[in-house]
Amino acid sequence: MDTKKQFRISTALRRRRKNPELVLPSHVLESIFQRLPLQDLVRIKAVSSTWKSFAEAVLLSKSCLQRVPWLMFPPPKEAEFDDDDEEEDEEECYVNAPSCCLMNVEENIVYYLKKTTSDLFFKFKCIGSSHGWLIFFDDTTKSPFLLNPLTEHRIQLPLLEPHLKSVLKERSILIPVKAILTAEPDGEYGIVVICDSRVGLGFYKNGDSSWTIIEGSSKNYDDIICCKNQLYAIRYSLNGVVETWDLQGCRPKKKFTIAANYPDIYEDEAGDCTLSSYLVESRGEILLVVRVIEEEEFLFNPAHRTKLFHAYKLDIKREKWVELKSLGDRSLFLGINHSASISTKDLQTCKPNSIYFTDDFWFQILHSPCGHDMGIYCLEDGCFLPVQDHFELPEEIRPLLCWIVPNNRHQIQNT
């Protein structure tokens, strides 16, 4: 082979190595991309402009499909530190901590996040997961922010404490417990936060300079959800009181309060247990899930575990909670996340008529082992199953695990 021909072949090979899209025709690339999991599609956009355009087209088509929540969890901290130099060593522990993980429950695959995202998960308090975004709170600066763990996009929010704390007469610390988004943060959206028992619901609308207290909100809530431009809140009580606001205006406007008592069936099975309530939108209906948590001794320290669940459907006309004996083909995902309901008809691994739950028992987090109370509850026979079957988690997990619905959108405002 002459030298010129060898040079042409060598040049062509180098061009193909630099431009991988030249190797495969477009229809083959599209077919391959359609079979890739979401995490790989996000990564593959960095290969070339052509691959990026194909990947974004596939991501857009997949964003319209049902998305199964993934489980986000931290690995155990590798470093131990002494009490003599706690602050410095704890900061060192964040730096040296391994990457956090995302488990795709549907495919039973674990992905490792970038270290920058993992550091945030260790360092700040995660108070919610909604529309594919994590909601963090910085206890030091009292500053909340949003983070998309797949794209690493971050949205800084106004300080929470100066505005909401003004409603408190006494000097005290404001503690946010749970937060959700009213919509994806790509335009018109808001954020609702449950604070401690002395403050009503906090609200921030994109573009505002500060937080406000939602007019008509009480001081004790277990859970909140947004559905069809409506905000639903369940009071922290034993009588199933639900409050509703319309979110279509500049500020949430209260619509009605329903004192929909659910059956008093807990005397024998609950005893002195703690009850925790969750609201879920499922097939356009509002469901209430009551979690019965019992406390027990764990190495001479108080611990807790979930004993059982009950599910109800809200009958708005009769102002009544109707108990459900079955969820049908639905699976519910509960915890500090924006509660989710999915159909398992086309899914092989997700269990129907089941509740996937993580540990969010805030009252015990600071004083006892936590993070361990998680699993799958089968509503049909009342049995518990582990969420993971191919790796082991420690008995105590900090920070807490949470469900997150993967969201690949990254073209957002105010980043």
Strand content: 25-35%
Tell me the number of strands.
25
The strands making up the biggest β-sheet line up spatially as 21-20-22-23-24
Span of the ends, CA to CA = 56 Å
Contiguous runs where pLDDT drops below 50 for at least 5 residues: 76-97, 410-415
| Shape field | globular
How would you classify the helix and strand content by structural class? alpha+beta
Biggest sheet layout: 5 strands, mixed
Cα Rg: 24 Å
The overall pLDDT average reads: 76
Share of helix among residues?
10-25%
Count of alpha and pi helical runs? 9
Q: Please, could you describe this protein's structure?
A:
The protein is α+β, with helices and mostly antiparallel strands and 415 residues long. Helices cover 19% and strands 34% of the residues. The chain has nine helices and 25 strands. The strands form six sheets. Strands 21-20-22-23-24 form a five-stranded mixed beta sheet, with no helix packed on it. Strands 3-2-1-25 form a four-stranded antiparallel beta sheet, with no helix packed on it. The longest helix is centred in the first third of the chain and has 16 residues. It is globular, with a radius of gyration of 24 Å. The N and C termini lie far apart (56 Å). The C terminus is likely disordered.
